[in-house]
Design goal:
This protein has helices at 3-19, 47-59, 74-86, 101-107, 122-130, and strands at residues 23-29, 67-70, 91-93, 112-117, 145-152, 155-162. It is an alpha/beta fold. The chain has one domain (22-162): 3-Layer(aba) Sandwich (Rossmann fold), CATH 3.40.50. Helix 2 runs parallel beside helix 3.
Length: 164
């Protein structure tokens, strides 16, 4: 076998292996919540929230999601419940106060992961993943932000889109 063929084969093998190490982390705020009782710290989703939860399921339909994380609140769990049921996945409960981001990144290697949280925790979660103070808190009436963090061979890219 010629040297050129060996080099091409080695290049192909190394490229193929690096692709396997890529991770995509999709971070969203919970869907719209019931706002009738301001003292309720764990309100349910309202009608629009249940519709948005179904829309998230549709959005992630072709994303090959393998892990779903949620804080332990009705509104966050119910936001990803349709997606979890559709993909036969367990919803993994996390606390934003207890995340060790390096461990989270390592455990998500090669996965497509959805994380649902809150207006004050999701931007902070993203900022910790990208190791930069880049994103501000989400406005309390905004439930359509989708943060996408991709990590491939230690190279981190990120973007924010809105999904209505």
């Amino acid at each position: 076998m010629s040297i050129l063929k060996i080099l091409v084969l080695l290049l192909f093998i190394s490229f193929d292996q690096s692709t396997e190490k890529c991770s995509n982390i999709y971070l969203i705020r919970h869907a719209e919540k019931v706002r009738t009782d301001k003292s309720d710290r764990d309100p349910d989703l309202n009608n629009n929230g249940f519709i948005r939860a179904e829309n998230w399921k549709q959005y992630f339909f072709d994303k090959d999601i393998s892990k779903i994380y949620s804080t332990n609140y009705k509104r966050t769990v119910k936001t990803v419940k349709p997606l979890a049921e559709n993909n036969s996945l367990e919803i993994l409960i996390y606390s934003s106060d207890d995340i060790i981001y390096k461990d989270f990144i390592n455990s998500s290697e090669g996965e497509n992961t959805v994380v649902v949280g809150h207006s004050n925790t999701i931007p902070e979660f993203v900022n910790n993943l990208i190791n930069e103070d880049y994103y501000d808190q989400i406005d309390d009436l905004n439930n359509s932000n989708l943060y996408i963090v991709s990590i491939c061979n230690s190279i981190i890219t990120h973007k924010l889109i809105t999904v209505d």
